[in-house]
Amino acid sequence: MLFYLKLYLLTLPVFFLIDLLWLGVVARGIYRNNLGHLLAERVDWAAAIIFYLIYIAGILLFAVAPGLAADSLRKTALLAAGFGFFTYATYELTNRATLPNWPLKIVLIDTLWGVVLCTLVAIAAHLIGKQLR
């Protein structure tokens, strides 16, 4: 249990760095240009932090732990890509179905981002986990 707590705490900054770089720099204009009519003026940081804490636990539980158990970086990466795809696609398609003018372009970009983000974070966490052992 202590191993996974350490791994979790070391994975947190990795996730934040990658996702905040995407949201704050790389894709900032994409979201503003396509979702400006829906974006809040201020981020609800409590909700964002709770999401991050839960989501990182999901990556570790569903991708990294099985990959480490199998001593397979490839397994970690594949499971993480799947986790990212299913979670982000679920979010995006729910938004598309229920929110006015949710662009298909955002569904595709964000779903792909979910795959990339989860894969990168899980690979880093897998490598960190190997070092912790």
TrEMBL record:
TM spans (from-to): 7-25, 45-65, 77-94, 106-128
InterPro entries with a match to the protein in the record: DUF2177_membr
Pfam families with a match to the protein in the record: DUF2177
Domain of life the protein comes from: Bacteria
Keywords (A to Z) from UniProt: Membrane, Transmembrane, Transmembrane helix
Keyword DNA damage annotated: no
Name of the protein described by the UniProt record: DUF2177 domain-containing protein
